[in-house]
User: What shape does this take?
Amino acid sequence: MKILIVEDEKALSKSIVAYFKAENYVCELADTVKTAIEKTEVFDYDCILLDISLPDGNGLNVLKDLKANNKTDGVIIISAKDSIDDRITGLNLGADDYLAKPFHLSELSARIAAVIRRRRFHGNNIIVLNELTVDTLAKAILVNNQPVIFTRREYDLLLYLVTNKNRVISKNAIAEHLSGDEADVFDNFDFIYAHIKNLKKKLTLAGCSDYIKSIYGMGYKFEVRI
Assistant: This one.
């Protein structure tokens, strides 16, 4: 899961990144409206944490841009401003939630998980595709109700493919999803091939059908019929 933290308060953004990296999220940062819009127009995020008061303007402009571009990223407004007008405006512009500062990171984590469940998994913690089950709350994968051990990146990769089932996902999109801003430093996509190979091997050994298909010259597709 990948989140964008739009926050100019360095100490707060640093603590949020540390907390959510420990929770196995890929975290990216933006400290201005301009940078946030540039990122959201190029990349997709599972959830965006959006401060309203930013050095170059109102963070709600990021929401307006998302709406104008028909983006479906989840958004939680995090702001010291706790007025009813800000809440109503943000929600009307498409925000999923509003959390006033100061807040506990554990509460923010719960709200992010809830937004992702609603946006990506129709409100469910459990995704069942025939013999394959993904528990997004426990971060567990089961085949025929038996747990299968995966690395963090293998889990993230499988969840990403499952979320986009029956769609071709480019290698660029996979690299960016798994590595965020660091994706640009890779000279090739050998690391994706290695993760796909390991993922397919573990699933097959556990008795799972081979749902992950390589689409020549394009990327990969999790192909499944329910």
